[in-house]
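Typical record is below.
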Amino acid sequence: MPTDLDPAELRVLGCLLEKELATPDYYPLSLAALLAACNQKTSREPVVSYDEATVQEAVSRLKDRQLVWQSDAGRVSRFGENLGGKGQLVNREKAVLAVLLLRGPQTVGEIRQRTDRLHTFASSEEVEEVLSGLVEGGMVARLARQPGQKEARCRHLLGGQESEPAAGPAMGSTPPGLSLSGLSAEVAALREEVASLRQEIEDFRQLLR
């Protein structure tokens, strides 16, 4: 599985997974429909405003990696996801990945609520079961519970700032193409990783006692 997809590629893949389950009659998606899905103002964190070229280029890169397929059967080309190709992922796994790709790290409760229109989970335990499988497959990671939070969150590992924090910039500078909000997200991700490592160390100490 990929671990280095950029934000535009993640958004495209998340939208294709979502629409495949939510609106199967209109799937695969035309470029115009995919652009609208990427720039949707609801169920998206963050909300983006991509132009057609950005989405087209992201689709082309994903096609090169065989993560997206193209159909030219109609008057316009249409695109579908291939992340779950060859039966590797079932619908409930696609639903969980879709919301993690489109809305970032979430708790089990949030995932269950936000996947409701994609796949109906009978219980939180069923969501946990799916997450465990995705963790074993290297597609999802569990984050340590932060102080003040009632539940731990999970995140995808397919790329972007969530999975590959960049090396810290020189003091007072901002790397090209990275906003202050992007730096804040990287700092938050690093803090989560540190908290996770601290928890693992504490668990190990408990075993030694």
In short: The CA atoms of residues 51 and 97 lie 24 Å apart.
